[in-house]
Amino acid sequence: MKLQPTDIDILENVVGSRGGSTTVTTILIDGKKLVVANVGDSRAILCRNGKAEGITVDHRPLKEKKQVEDRGGCVVKLPGNIPRAMTRAFGDKKVKKHITAKPDVVVKKIDFPVMANYMMFGFLVI
């Protein structure tokens, strides 16, 4: 799945110097195969035999510190001990050279998918 053209479109239409950012989890169901691509901190899970199985991971600074540093950025904690929320997103023009919109892509056999954003998964441990 190629999502970078979408990121370029967002960046080209940003008014001002910063703009916003967004995360994406997208799925393609092909028969009994599920293809999932995610950027940022939105997740997808599968339910198998009554159990939830996480199939995506959040793109967090401490997990991707080397990649951020390789792009010339740094991972620091802000006042109040709050780190940057994610290392991958669409938009976020001000720090785009340090983050990416390149997705992780996972292929799984499916029972059925559940998709939600961080508001659900922020309180749910899988």
UniProtKB/TrEMBL annotation:
<feature type="domain" description="PPM-type phosphatase">
    <location>
        <begin position="1"/>
        <end position="126"/>
    </location>
</feature>
<dbReference type="Pfam" id="PF00481">
    <property type="entry name" value="PP2C"/>
</dbReference>
<dbReference type="InterPro" id="IPR036457">
    <property type="entry name" value="PPM-type-like_dom_sf"/>
</dbReference>
<dbReference type="GO" id="GO:0004722">
    <property type="term" value="F:protein serine/threonine phosphatase activity"/>
</dbReference>
<dbReference type="InterPro" id="IPR001932">
    <property type="entry name" value="PPM-type_phosphatase-like_dom"/>
</dbReference>
<protein>
    <submittedName>
        <fullName>Protein phosphatase 1K, mitochondrial</fullName>
    </submittedName>
</protein>
<dbReference type="InterPro" id="IPR015655">
    <property type="entry name" value="PP2C"/>
</dbReference>
